[in-house]
């Protein structure tokens, strides 16, 4: 246990802090009671911690939530939202009427778990294990980019520490020496269904945190003086701090204190009334919290940058889109707000060139994909444009983080390389065959799958200012450049590479399968069959107009070819787009339907039924109908 010399608070300040903590407890009880749901006992345990933090250590201009020098407060245990919203009332930014009258109600910004619908909330939380990884990203921005003295405070639950992402976050916090980050763990020993794994074994918590390079401090989470001293020490630490606070779930309400079965339940009216009375009744304390020092970030983050000088490629030259992705990042580096993260595969994703040229804006997250996405979410909180890359298959490890990024409205740019059976001999563990479906399902996402280097560079450049989660799927192998430098590729568009008014069938691909479609079209032309070839590089949003035209020109004969499982991929996207067309569609859907093995690219595509022979055969069959 880390011991510090305790500084005794004056009696007047202790009284004020006790009153504030009591108000936070009362308001947590009242708001969840009025809603008839919520997590009051999880809020009661941390009320003392937040009272001291709010009144004495959180440097925040509540009238200017975007002020660059503000501290950041993240409730990783987002279910304790009654406490967070009670803090906002005590800060004077929401009214008692809003707190008690609208919490968890339809249309309210005080949702069951916090989201950035509130300007004082940086990221959506509630899926446990996510607030601390985002806090690492914000702290990285403060220490390495902004170079401002703001501090990042993250309230975590003890049950939440069973999530591996918490330890990924502490590992990276220790690795990067994030002295501006403090994780406050509310160790109240109860989870949803009973006691937690470690209960009140504070020594084990401490040893685990220290093993990741963090300074651990164990305190009584209801001793205001000890809390104050620990938070003061954390503010001046030389590395990341983990404050392990031993608390009692339901503290302040004897009927539920340290008792199982109360998680996620509003208190019955009789218990609530007794508790509010015992806690001194309803108060309207407004705290004059410490103000941050003035300052500006070292890096200017423009709202919109100049058009980048993109790399140029010779038509017909064989270039992998992953290579074009890396070279596009170098071009985007002219913008100081562009930052790049990688999951220890930068030699494959081709982000290594950016890392070599701009090491101050490159963050190696190693093989920790949850933290990779979490850090990107945190960096964008501070106005940066984060590009995070790994193998497409490994993004599945971080899918919940990507999903929550959509809920946060986070602007992050993801790249997945080595997608599909095209990668060859590495085998199915490395083949992303689900990623398009997964990323399409994320709220507000954009999914792009370029077929050549020119289109890849142009699309990557457009994502830099694109709202929401953007995903670019890149290819391992090198394929011919199809387009001229300077060609445009609007998001939501497509390219017609072959075709005319007499087309009998349309061949629709994206990424690597576009090249198979082109080869098939040449074979069909030799047989007298006119085939339209569409490069559907924008999978979401999709070019419905081009698809409708293809249906009407060809009589509904579509061959869709994708290096992806059939569920939720490109074929599904096309059928969704055409569902209300009201015209007959005869679609042959070529996708990976079995479990791939190792082999060459050609062998695997042929075995999956997405090679040139399969495309040609499917088109001939449709054209004959």
From TrEMBL:
Listed cofactors: Ca(2+); thiamine diphosphate; Mg(2+); Mn(2+)
Keywords: Calcium, Magnesium, Metal-binding, Thiamine pyrophosphate, Transferase
PROSITE patterns: TRANSKETOLASE_2 (PS00802)
Enzyme Commission number(s) from the entry: 2.2.1.1
Enzyme class of the recorded protein, top EC level: transferase
Keyword Protein biosynthesis tagged: no
Listed InterPro entries: THDP-binding, Transketo_C/PFOR_II, Transketolase-like, Transketolase-like_Pyr-bd, Transketolase_BS, Transketolase_C, Transketolase_N
A GO term for molecular function: transketolase activity
Pfam families linked to this entry: Transket_pyr, Transketolase_C, Transketolase_N
Domain Transketolase-like pyrimidine-binding: 319-481
KW ATP-binding (keyword) present: no
Residues spanning the membrane: none
UniProt superkingdom: Bacteria
Stored PANTHER family: FI06132P-RELATED (PTHR43195:SF1), TRANSKETOLASE (PTHR43195)
Stated family: Belongs to the transketolase family.
Subunit structure: Homodimer.
Name assigned to this protein: Transketolase
Native species: Polymorphospora lycopeni
């Amino acid at each position: 246990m880390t011991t510090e010399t305790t500084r005794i608070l004056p009696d007047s300040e202790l009284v004020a802090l006790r009153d504030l903590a009591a108000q936070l407890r009362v308001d947590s009880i009242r708001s969840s009671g009025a809603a008839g749901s919520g997590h009051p006992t999880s809020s009661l345990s941390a009320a003392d911690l937040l009272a001291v933090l709010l009144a004495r250590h959180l440097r925040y201009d509540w009238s200017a939530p975007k002020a660059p020098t503000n501290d950041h407060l993240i409730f990783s245990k987002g279910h304790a939202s009654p406490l967070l919203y009670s803090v906002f009332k005590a800060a004077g930014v929401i009214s008692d009427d809003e707190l008690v009258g609208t919490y968890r109600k339809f249309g309210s910004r005080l949702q069951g778990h916090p989201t950035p619908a509130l300007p004082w909330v940086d990221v959506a939380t509630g899926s446990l294990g996510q607030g601390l990884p985002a806090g690492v990203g914000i702290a990285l921005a403060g220490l390495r980019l902004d170079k401002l003295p703001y501090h990042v405070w993250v309230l975590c639950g003890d049950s939440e520490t069973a999530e591996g992402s918490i330890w990924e976050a502490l590992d990276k916090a220790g690795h990067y020496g994030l002295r501006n980050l403090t994780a406050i763990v509310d160790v109240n020993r109860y989870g949803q269904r009973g006691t937690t794994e470690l209960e009140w074994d504070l020594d084990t918590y401490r040893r685990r945190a220290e093993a990741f390079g963090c300074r651990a401090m164990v305190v009584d989470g209801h001793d205001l003086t000890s809390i104050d001293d620990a938070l003061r020490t954390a503010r001046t630490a030389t590395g990341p701090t983990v404050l392990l606070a031993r608390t009692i779930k339901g503290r302040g309400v004897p009927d539920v204190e340290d008792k199982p079965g109360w998680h996620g339940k509003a208190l019955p009216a009789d218990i609530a009334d007794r508790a509010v009375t015992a806690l001194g009744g309803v108060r309207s304390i407004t705290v004059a919290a410490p103000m941050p020092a003035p300052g500006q970030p070292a890096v200017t983050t423009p709202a919109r940058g100049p058009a980048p000088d993109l790399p140029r490629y010779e038509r017909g030259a064989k270039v992998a889109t992953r290579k074009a992705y890396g070279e596009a990042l170098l071009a985007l580096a002219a913008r100081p707000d562009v930052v790049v993260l990688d999951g220890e595969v930068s030699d494959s994703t081709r982000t290594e060139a950016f890392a070599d040229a701009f090491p101050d804006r490159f963050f190696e997250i190693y093989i920790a994909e949850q933290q990779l996405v979490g850090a990107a979410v945190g960096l964008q909180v501070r106005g940066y444009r984060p590009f995070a890359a790994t193998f497409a298959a490994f993004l599945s490890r971080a899918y919940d983080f990507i999903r929550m990024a959509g809920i946060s409205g986070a602007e992050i740019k993801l790249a997945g390389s080595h997608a599909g059976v095209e990668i060859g001999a590495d085998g199915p563990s490395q083949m992303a065959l689900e990623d398009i479906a997964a990323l399409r399902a994320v709220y507000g996402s954009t999914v792009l799958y370029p077929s050549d280097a020119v289109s890849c560079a142009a699309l990557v450049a457009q994502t830099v200012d694109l709202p929401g989660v953007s995903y670019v799927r890149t290819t391992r192998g090198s394929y011919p450049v199809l387009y001229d430098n300077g060609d445009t590729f609007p998001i939501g568009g497509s390219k017609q590479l072959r075709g005319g008014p007499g087309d009998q069938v349309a061949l629709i691909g994206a990424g690597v399968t576009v090249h198979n479609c082109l080869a098939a079209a040449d074979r069909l032309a030799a047989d007298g069959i006119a085939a339209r070839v569409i490069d559907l590089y924008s999978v979401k949003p999709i070019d419905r107009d081009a698809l409708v035209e293809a249906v009407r020109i060809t009589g509904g004969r579509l061959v869709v070819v994708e290096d992806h499982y059939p569920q939720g991929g490109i074929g599904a996207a096309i059928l969704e787009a055409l569902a209300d067309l009201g015209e007959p569609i005869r679609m042959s859907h070529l996708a990976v339907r079995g479990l791939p093995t190792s082999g060459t690219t050609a062998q695997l595509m042929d075995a999956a039924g997405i090679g040139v022979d399969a495309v040609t055969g499917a088109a001939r069959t449709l054209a004959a109908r």
